Amino acid sequence: METTLFDLAALLLTLAAAFGYINHRWLKLPHTIGLVVIALLASVGVLALDSVAPSLGFQAAVRGTVESLDFPDLLMEGMLSFLLFAGALHIDLDEMAQRKWAIGTMATVGVLISTFVVGYATFFVAGWLGFTIPLSYCLVFGALISPTDPIAVLGILKTIEVPASLEAKIAGESLFNDGVGIVVFTIMVAIALGAEGGHPVTAGAIAELFVVEAIGGAVLGLVAGYLAYRTIGSIDEHNLEVLITLALVTLTYAIALALHISGPIAMVVAGILIGNHGKKFAMSETTRDHLFKFWSLTDEVLNSILFLMIGFEVLALTFTGSIGLAMVAAVPIVLVARFIAVAVPITGLSTMREFTKGAIPVLTWGGLRGGISVALALSLPAFPDKNLVLAMTYGVVIFSIVVQGLTVGRVVQRVVR
Description:
Oligomer: single chain
Structural class: mainly alpha
Largest sheet: none
Helix content: over 70%
CATH class of the largest domain: Mainly Alpha
CATH architecture of the largest domain: Up-down Bundle
Order of helices and strands: HHHHHHHHHHHHHHHHH
């Protein structure tokens, strides 16, 4: 019997509910981390069962189901729009504006620094391990793993106490460097494919792609958000106003995809506008209550599904001893690159303003990676070392969510207070 989209949705929601219940009753981990851990353990159990009784074909069946979900399309062309808008709704524009230089610099210069540090370090380490992956694809890995994941970051921020100034930097940077990172990833893939095909990409084409994607996305989000803001302000019917925000998210993201501009940046800009000016000047108290509760629930449900899927994506990998070593090596490489990408902008800006004590270590350790990096890695065109890039990405993401996610609160307590 053919598996339908409804069947897959039913399976994901049921597993998310069941695993969430197990975590809430017994593991007591933060909800999203608990889902990743349980799904990861279930995946390891599938691999162990398959190694003991390969004739059952259990791994192949489960792996086929996981692959049928088409994680890159599901996240990048569907879930991401709702998750980014929901996250941006809760961003305090005044807090973020006070730290615009730090957020802007880390989300642009920081991403580029990290991309090149990770890319070159990966090239040398991979060569030492016996892989012949081209430098261009190492830089692609640097681009997809450098941006912090706003979904993972905002999820963890709900569970720990962070000074308001640091929280604004972490949340604001993660929302914007996500969009910038996807643009940089697109450019690096174009460069890699051009080098592979003997048609190098020119500097002019790279600059044009960056400007069109990034600035185009921001303009689209501002225009669409303003139209929705004015429409909401002209009525007082909370159900209809929630529906208008749903239309804003889906239509704006669809237009961004059609025009090849940054949908994530458009969602962040639109969400910040509605969550600040819309909340203050266009909504009644009843509408504010309903709208924010609706988007919080949407955020929780989609987050549960996303982190569940991250845990199961281990079944899409092929492991060898060398790949395992590369996965382990990728973690310190990415952490060192993150430290440099944070320290350079913060140190440079510290001559003009004072930063919260412990800002660099907290921003370094709190820069979590998540589903977006996995989706970008899975979306790569086929090349000889794609499985290596997938495995390194997955290793960094799991370490980031589980280890960094569980300990970032302690880091905050130790270095800030």
